[in-house]
Amino acid sequence: MDNYSFIIKPATQDHTAFAEAITDEMEQSAKARGTGIAKRSPEYIVTKMMEGKAVIATTTDGEWAGFCYIEAWGHGKYVANSGLIVAPKFRKFGLARMIKKEIFKLSRTKYPESKIFGLTTGAAVMKINSELGYIPVSYSDLTDDEQFWKGCQSCVNFEILQSKNRQNCLCTAMLYEPKVKKVEHEEIALRNDFKKNLKLFERWTRLKKYVMLNIKKTKDKTISLF
């Protein structure tokens, strides 16, 4: 295995040339997982870089390696760390965890009073979130900002989200609340047995995917009878 050294820092105008490669990899990664994410354009990624609301990882040779950005919703009451992606050749180096920690730190600096949340189908991302202090919650604990939910329309599973009245989908919702006592924080947790265990996260995501997709298949078969 090759050894790489990475530079992880807030993205700037100097990194805008990577925007198209980043969005292409986001799309390909979503297709490979068979789940989908809200689609973003290179122009949108450039905007995040220019606003100082993104973190990028590059090699010491200047090659793009990973990326993540910040979105604020509900007038800044809620913040999401979105679009976490690592270039294929740089996976298995723990880079996703390092980027997650940096974007989390940047979010806490820019929005110290905000709740930080995420929707993900990835067990590894769930584990990283858990290590940072996130807990799995119901969708009702997330922002009600229509612009956020509108972004889900480009996801291949949007039909499932609609059928559940926006209360559930393949993604697992996770939330970090600043200045909240641990006991109060865990009272709203859907699961308290994860304990940062990757195997439990993987089991949870497999089960959720199985249940949700089978519900959709059953619904489609029922409709085809009429």
Task: Please give a structural write-up.
This protein is α+β, with helices and mostly antiparallel strands. Helix content is 42%, strand content 19%. The protein is built from 8 helices and 7 strands; from the N terminus they run E-H-H-E-E-E-H-E-H-E-H-H-E-H-H. The chain has helices spanning 19-33, 42-50, 95-110, 123-132, 146-150, 158-163, 182-187, 198-224; strands at 6-10, 54-59, 64-73, 78-86, 115-120, 135-137, 172-176. Strands 1-2-3-4-5-7-6 form a 7-stranded mixed beta sheet, sandwiched between helices. A hairpin with a 4-residue loop joins strand 2 (54-59) and strand 3 (64-73). Helix 1 (19-33) packs across helix 2. The chain is globular, with a radius of gyration of 18 Å. Mean pLDDT is 83; it is low at 221-226. This is GNAT family N-acetyltransferase. It comes from Belliella marina. InterPro entries: Acyl_CoA_acyltransferase.
Furnish the topology, listing elements before pairings:
Elements: E1 6-10, H1 19-33, H2 42-50, E2 54-59, E3 64-73, E4 78-86, H3 95-110, E5 115-120, H4 123-132, E6 135-137, H5 146-150, H6 158-163, E7 172-176, H7 182-187, H8 198-224
Parallel strand pairs: 4-5
Antiparallel strand pairs: 1-2, 2-3, 3-4, 5-7, 6-7
Protein name: GNAT family N-acetyltransferase
Organism: Belliella marina
InterPro entries: Acyl_CoA_acyltransferase
